[in-house]
Amino acid sequence: MLRRSDQVKVEGNQFLSVQTIRALLPIQYPQSIFRTQPGTIVETLKQKAPIIDATVDRQIFPPSLTVRIRERTPVAQLVDPDIAKAPKDKAVSGHDLLDESGVVIPIESLNALNQTLKLPGLRILGRIETIRPQWLGCYQFLRNSPVRIQQIDWRNPTNLVVTGETGTVHLGAYNPAEFPRQLRAMDGMRRIGEKIPKEQIDYIDLRNPDKPAIHQIANRSAEKNLEKNNAP
């Protein structure tokens, strides 16, 4: 007989707690171990929690269950363009999580589980329909990136705007052949602040990583003043 939830061992979990997994199991205690249905347990977990797959092993003596799960691990925050200015440290409506394969994990589903979670440090701004086709390959490059990326603004697919250690960088349309080279170019520009004060840099243009261009705020202001003075 399974008389208590602590007779259920949980393995493989990283961000879902053991208590959360145990609470989701379709088991009425006390219950004969022979009446437990591993297939039903697996399907229940996949429906109610961000879990890719699970296995259930029954042990007769001493009576216990071992539930091994494979979670959907969130790797980025997905921020709807309509609320792109939402606070970075809060989960709000329209603000979900994204796993490495491009599956969206609704914040509400985790809140419903009373599951507290430290949000991933990477934010992605844009529509999932636009992002998903390129996301799997893009994230593999990001995971191995020599430079830390904090945010990717994907609202304009023709020009990804990346924010990281080197400030704001324009990359143009996502190109899997160029993206790793652009990341390496960003890594090589970490010390750009020693030559040009960061507050004077509007953005770095790395559409062509072989020919990086720095757009300074002062230059833009001068251009605007020139246009104003030349206006009729």
What would you say this structure looks like, in words?
- It is a single chain.
- This protein is α/β, with parallel strands linked by helices and 232 residues long.
- The protein has 6 helices and 12 strands.
- The chain has helices at residues 18-24, 38-48, 107-112, 128-143, 179-188, 217-230; strands at 8-11, 51-59, 64-71, 74-79, 95-99, 104-105, 123-125, 149-153, 161-164, 167-170, 201-205, 213-216.
- The strands form 2 sheets. Strands 6-5-4-7-8-9-10-11-12 form a 9-stranded mixed sheet. A 3-stranded mixed sheet has the order 1-3-2, covered by helices on one side.
- Strand 8 (149-153) and strand 9 form a beta hairpin.
- The chain is elongated and about 75 Å long.
Mean pLDDT: 85
Low-confidence stretches: 89-93, 221-232
Q: Report the principal-axis shape.
A: elongated
- The oligomerization state is single chain
Topology of helices and strands:
Layout: E1 8-11, H1 18-24, H2 38-48, E2 51-59, E3 64-71, E4 74-79, E5 95-99, E6 104-105, H3 107-112, E7 123-125, H4 128-143, E8 149-153, E9 161-164, E10 167-170, H5 179-188, E11 201-205, E12 213-216, H6 217-230
